[in-house]
Amino acid sequence: MTKEDLTKEEYGYVEKLLTVIEASGRNYDIDKILRAYLCAKKLHEGQKRNSGEPYIVHPVAVAEIALSLGLDTDSICAAFLHDTIEDCSDRITLDELRREFGPEVAMLVDGLTKMADINIEDKEEAHMENIRKMLLAMSKDIRVLIIKLADRLHNMRTLGYMKPEKIVEKCNETLEIYAPLASRLGISKVKFELEDLALKYLHPEEFEDLKQKVSKRKEEREETINTVIGEIKEALNDMDLHYDIYGRAKHYYSIYRKMKYQNKQIDEIFDLIAVRIIVENVKECYAVLGIVHTMWKPIPGRFKDYIAMPKPNMYQSLHTTVIGDNGEPFEIQIRTYEMHKVAEYGIAAHWKYKEGDTSGNASNDDIKLAWLRQSLEWQQDIKDPKDFLETMKMDLFASQVFVFTPKGDVIELPAGSTPLDFAFKIHSAIGCKCVGAKVNGKMVTIDYTLQNGDIVEIVTSANSSGPSVDWLKIAKSSNARNKIRGWLKKENKSENIEKGKDLLDKYIRKKGYDPSGFTKSAFINKAIKAMNFANTEEAYTQLSNGGTLVSKFANLLFGYYSEENHTEIKSNEAIIDELRAAEARKAKLERRSKDSPGIVVEGADNLMIKLAKCCNPVPGDDIIGFITKGRGISVHRCDCSNIVALPEEEKQRFIHVEWENLKAGKSYNADICIIGNDRKGILSDISRVCEDMDIHLSGVNAKSGRDGSLTMTITLSISSTQEMQKVLRSLRNISGVTQVYRAKS
């Protein structure tokens, strides 16, 4: 699919995004992205935002922000689809997303799906628990967190359409959770905007007053900055350096905090005027710093070397505050282009995904944040929300370990790294010849786990046979693993070429054909050119990795054969596919009959019917059918809040349904809410009641309150409303139980 396949209206929404993709030069899968966009647009059809705009505006905006942060194709797709499972559950499932867009997209969407509300009287505690669960879900993949930040950023940009009390809640949540997370991830552009937007809505008067104070001397400051930049340029031009230099505006929230918490006036804030200089390498950073300090007098105690000692979020830069010719202080920041990328995009600049990776597990060791999940699990016993948040902030980025070379240079590695990771971080040649290491003067094996502050010296040998496959299990960093894989591929080049040929032949035979007819040199050369391989050796080496690359290459050969011989070669494949499709249809009908929900639609047969999970109707309930878009009929209780709240135009899709004469033993899930005292043995008593009545207890979700109360939701397999009433009566008789009622949607 291309943009030419879109209607004028469809293209209007994604024109900006497609323009940025084309200009990026990165290998994005446009077809997949557009399919995800159209899927989201279709699923959100008819939905509106508080602003009155079509809902699709929000997913498009989130995708644009995700793209600006350098995320990959699957992330852009997930950004489009991030609300579909929650808001369109009657139209699509996670399994359907997985089949349509692959496991990566489904995993990201699943992680992004919002947490269900928790029925807890203590709202602050409930809020804490929701945050904890959200972070646990996100810890599976760093991209989830980055997309979530993009989602929050767009919501903050359109916050003015929400109710005042909701605005305050969202702003506080942004300042307490999302802005610190963006900071920990090092994504400064997102952090600053989130904070400024929160300030704008939380303290509108202070915000406007601050804007006026800042703009009051805007022209004077701009003149000062331009003068400073001109003088620095003149000095740097003499050094023949490649550099960029520009003025940097201080964001409002930072000024506000300094004025409020440090009791400063706006004229006392040193870095209100700031200049940023970007150069090629670290040596040039310190050279430029020397020049700056000869031009202006530095303020003692205001120099910070974040290059030698980076911040935990990987931020590196030189900061110095000097006194200008007019006596006004200003800040100068000096960094390399790579440091600047990290400063702007943070962890997103490092956790890149290779486009076109067909292995299904691209950089898993990098993207799975097991450390975050573990940290949060350790904090399960922390009840005070403030304590939890503070502890979480401290632990969030304890994922790096800092060690030293014998010369005292600081080396940053992922937590759990070994001497192998250290060796490859220093140089590939040292890593490949590594036979052991000294840590703090003592010999250790190459699988030793490095600790913060360790002094590491690598032992090498010219007689080393080089990396082995086992090293991939020892190395923890993507840098070391990639270099090990590169060495292994180079050493096993001839073996990989033969493997590639063999995989191609096997694929062709699997399709029912003789490979010799398709692997003629003319066909092979055409396919190599079409897939931008340098030569035959590279082609077969790439094919040795397997996956969809082999099928793409083979399909090209099939096409060239067909063109030359003027014949259709897919007849065998078509027959096999038809047989498979017939079997699938038969199996589907059998499953539908077996899994029938026991619902009759007057005047119609063979319809796809499912019971709505939001209200879980059981025989005896008054029910109504709702004709969904492409997913059959969804059956709800008549008192279901989702049905009651439907707009009038949607109610035209109601259809009369009724319970059929059900077979004995047929059961349905029903959610029961229980409120009572949190006493020892209460869960056992509930379980015993269910067992005595021969009712299957399939799920329990319980939460204890600080006041000794207990709120519990249990899922039971019920055959009818009559059986439901018997269960409710029995549960009410349990000691300590104060309320029992059927859950509403």
Please tell me how large the radius of gyration is: 31 Å
The N- to C-terminal Cα distance equals: 39 Å
**Main sheet?**
6 strands, mixed
- Coarse shape: globular
Name given to the CATH homologous superfamily of the largest domain: Hypothetical protein af1432
By secondary-structure content and strand pairing, the structural class works out as: alpha+beta
By CATH, the architecture of the largest domain is named Orthogonal Bundle
CATH class of the largest domain: Mainly Alpha
Counting DSSP E segments of at least 2 residues, the number of strands comes to: 21
Total count of helical runs of at least 4 residues: 31
Percentage of residues assigned to helices: 40-55%
Number of domains: 6
Description:
With 745 residues, this protein is an alpha+beta fold. It folds into six domains: 3-209, Hypothetical protein af1432 (Orthogonal Bundle); 210-349, Beta Polymerase, domain 2, CATH 3.30.460.10; 399-491, Ubiquitin-like (UB roll) (Roll); 493-566, no CATH class; 596-659, no CATH class; 668-742, Alpha-Beta Plaits (2-Layer Sandwich), CATH 3.30.70. It is 49% helix and 15% strand. Strands 1, 2, 3, 4, 5 and 6 form a six-stranded mixed sheet that branches. Strands 13-15-14-16 form a four-stranded mixed sheet, with no helix packed on it. Strand 9 and strand 10 (442-444) form a beta hairpin. The longest helix is centred in the C-terminal third of the chain and has 24 residues, at 571-594. It is globular. It starts with 7 loop residues before the first helix and ends with a strand. The model is unreliable at 115-123 and 350-398 (pLDDT under 50).
